[in-house]
Amino acid sequence: MAELQDELHLTSEVGELDPPAVWPESEPALLGTPGPAGTAGGDPLERAHAFLAAHPVADGYSGLPWVLRHLPWYDLELGETSVDTDVPRMRAGHVGAVFCSLHLPEGLAGDRAVGATLEQLDLVKAVVRAHPEGLRMTYSASGLTDARNCGRVAVVLGPAGAGALGDSLGILRALHTLGLRVLTLAGASWASEAGLTRFGEEVLREMNRLGVLADLSGTSDATTGRALAVSKAPVVFTRSAARALRPHPVNLPDDVLIELGAAKGLCLVPLTAEQAGPSVRDVADHLDHIRVLAGAECVGLSGTYDSGAAHPQDLSDASCYPRLIAELISRGWSASDLALLTWGNVQRVLRSADFTARAAQQRREPSSARIAELDG
């Protein structure tokens, strides 16, 4: 067991210590020369478009699958006025990857939750097959890069809710085989206010073995702390901003942000008015705050479009990312920090999860644990 832990720690570090990107001399010029009071010369919006053309956005959360499930007909390639996310708007916003949520409405549990999750997963795959010119299903960091190089938006399955497991590690493995890459721990009996149970820790270890990222948005402080201690792969918060700036229960306090930075996890800031505030500047304030506490390598973006949430002014749909990047450019963000924010950090956590999984699979067999045996 000690050898396995050593190897897992080593592989996680390998994923984190990839050489930094080499920025061509022309790229910083896209961001302009900072002017008085932290402003940048020229038009920040034009520079934002130019920058995003090279470093697109990996959007950490989209509620599109559940919305499409209730539409009688749609064509995402041509554009849909009934949704916030379609191919034309993602191209306008320079979105290179999108994580499709498989979350379910409250009230679904047990077999109904498992079945509804499978139906949404199947729907996402059908949507991608129906839009081959704009979308490509992907399962890894290299898949994201391949899709971008082919001019497609990479689609990643997840997060799904913990209810999708039905408290079965066999179902977890089946969902991973079907393509699931992120699982939210909130709402599970084994990840409660008291923290992770023995079975919950076994779920997290099996997620590490498979390469499924743990999403901790909405979990209790006890669960968050234990997951950070147990997980050998980076954890993510798919929809969390800074609680110090906006006291929303899903937002993160400063001490957790500092701990997340030490663990090299990832906080994806949602573009929602409720969690981040009513303006672009408010969202940028959260990004600034998290970058200071956790580090530039631990902050990313979560559009949270098509989730039913209200969005800040000027960030109403997936086409609006350049407006946010323009605000950050005007605040003096460097090219390297912006590239981590938009694309690099998501790549890192996916790559680290893959490294961790390969190491664990060499030493650890699939778990046969049952909740009744460990928590009964």
From TrEMBL:
Biased composition annotated in UniProt, kind: Low complexity: 28-37
UniProt feature, compositional bias: Basic and acidic residues: 1-10
Renumbered residue ranges of the record's region Disordered: 1-43
InterPro entries referenced in this protein's UniProt entry, alphabetically: Metal_Hydrolase, Pept_M19
Stated name of the protein: Dipeptidase
Organism per entry: Streptomyces siamensis
Phylogenetic placement of the source organism: Bacteria, Bacillati, Actinomycetota, Actinomycetes, Kitasatosporales
